Structure formats: structure tokens, C-alpha cells
Amino acid sequence: MTASLLGQAALGKSIALPLFSHHISAGFPSPAQDYVERTLDLNELCIRHPTATFFVKVSGDSMKNAGIYHEDILVVDRALHARHGDIVVAFINQEFTVKELHLKPQLQLCPHNPDYPVLPIRDTDEFEVFGVVTSVIRNIPRP
């Protein structure tokens, strides 16, 4: 699975949308004003560090069991320190990839699809964690 850089986050005009206070199980709440708890700005929800946040587009299916699919857009925060178990965008040997970071028992990048191998990071590899994935944006296809 590879990731292509789309660009850096730029916060401009805030767009506040209604946030309904009731959870949805199998229906849709009435649009009556009584149900609106507050407004929600997707920038506030998805972006904590605007100057260090980038968007990348996913290609491939090696992370499908983690809920990351081909053509999803990932919100990647470069200000966060990557920890064991984080989903990261990494740069390895001249390519960007999206994988789960494992720091122990050895440094490796793990896919979430059994069809793909674990990528151990060797001393000879050119390797850098580009950033930590904080959100996934997906359009639901319409029939």
C-alpha cells in the first residue's frame, strides 16, 4: 500500500455543521432543532496541528483490515511522536507506505492484510516515519 502526498492542511474559514446529540442505530434523527446539540467544525475534529498536518491518498489494500481502503484520504500529523502500534505513513527506500509501526521486538512495518508481508527495517534501509495517521476520510460510493 502506498500513499501519495496531496498537500498540507490549511485552515481558513471555519465551516460549522450541526452535530446531532442522538446516536444513530438504524435511522436518521428528525432535523428538528431540538436534536442539535452543538455545531462541529471538521477542521477542529481532524486537525490538531495545522502547520504539521498533511493529507495523503491511499493506493492499495494492505491496510484493509484496519479500515483503510484504496483511494481513502488520510490525515497525517507530523507533530505527533510515533509510538508502537500507531498507524503511520513511512518513507522507506524512496517510497511512501502506510503501515502499523512496531518498535518491539524489532523495528518493522506491519500490514493489516495477510496477503502482504511484514517489512522489517534494517540498518541499511533508508527509513523515516513521515507522520502518524489520525483520521481516515472516505466517500461512500453511490450505486
Automatic annotation (TrEMBL):
Domain Peptidase S24/S26A/S26B/S26C: residue ranges: 18-133
Domain of life: Bacteria
Leader sequence segment: none
KW DNA damage (keyword) present: yes
Keywords: Autocatalytic cleavage, DNA damage, DNA repair, Hydrolase, SOS response
One Pfam family named in its UniProt record: Peptidase_S24
Family of the protein in this entry: Belongs to the peptidase S24 family.
Protein name per Swiss-Prot or TrEMBL: DNA polymerase V subunit UmuD
Source species: Alishewanella tabrizica
Classification lineage: Bacteria, Pseudomonadati, Pseudomonadota, Gammaproteobacteria, Alteromonadales
